[in-house]
Design brief:
The chain is an alpha/beta fold. It is built from 15 helices and 13 strands.
Amino acid sequence: MADNDNSITRRDFTKGVAVGTMAGALGTMGIYSYSPLAKQHFVKAPAAKENIGEVKSVKVTNISETSWFDNKVLMGDIKGAGGLLVNQYTYNWAPFTQPKGQLGKGSYEDGMKILRPLIPNKLDEAWAYQLENAVNPTNGGGFAALIEVEALDGKITRILLDSGWNFDWMDKAFKREGIDKLLADGKIDYFVLSHEHFDHFWGAPVVFKYGPTVRTLYPKGFYPEGMDYLKAAGHRGELIETKPGLYKLFPGAALYNFATPIICRVFGEQSLFFNVKDKGLVTVTGCCHQGILQFASVAQRAVETKKLYGIYGGLHVSPFDEWDPKYDDLVAVFKKWGFEKVGCNHCTGILTARKLIEAGIPVIQGTARNGTKDKAYLGNGDQIVFAMNDVVDIAAAATQGAASAAPAAAGGGMKY
């Protein structure tokens, strides 16, 4: 979305993101989030903390954290298309591909000429076309999570965070976790898009296939392609654009929109805050391109809460498992925040999860099923619960490493 409010910030986009791509090191995708240049883009938290209310519990079900299956294939595609500053819609990745499309020579408009008549009700046909014509279509997966929030009076509110990427993979993942039925029955109250990236947004037709009228929220900063795709994907319900800063969702829950430039010509990411009674703030993020330390700092300064209690999602530290020495300092600072329960996955990186565990941070580990590669973090189909009255979960404690078993047992864990 090209508007005057973001024009100056976007002019600095190349300068900013280049910090994370020096010497062509695609593996350092997380570095920009922790660089001094990134700080100029963040919205300052209000001087007075906001009272967003309280909830009884927050349960997160990992629908899919497998955004892609092979790091080398993804990195090769990005490099071959021109690098991390190139518009993602020109990569010739599924679903915006042309007949026998060539890497880095695509266009959203040409791709949509074929795709538009097929979404959202002919996804099988659309996927068959991608298999035949797209660049590495089977390497795409997607990120999505179901968040079930219990109010103090027992009412349940459901939030679908993100829609993944690969139509076929996400449709199967939705059916595995019953998301298709929840959408069809109108039991998903909010569909929240964290940001415009391919692995979080391009699976939107799968959502609208089952729930075309679901209330949808996206962060200010979507480009014309993304805005058009939301409509073309089949959405016919309320569409809400969140501005930078805090957006109260319902009692005990809020969104926070971080106005920050991101790789592949994407701008802005929003994350979720939940204030759990007697426990503190639970933060849920899709990718955390804003940087985990800045994210935690803003959460602490923006919301009136007891403490930082828990976190779930992609922490965007080392998504390609290449460790930079500065990340050791990041782990040390992260530990000082005092989170009692950490559920990480996706672009956190498996190596990062192991480093957090070794540091004694209470990371809830997973089962490595349904396509997830490692038990170091919560994988596809795993759950984590943040509640005012936690109960020891033996199954969760049994999956812990020695460094984190005791904290996880004290704070609850997964239910399978």
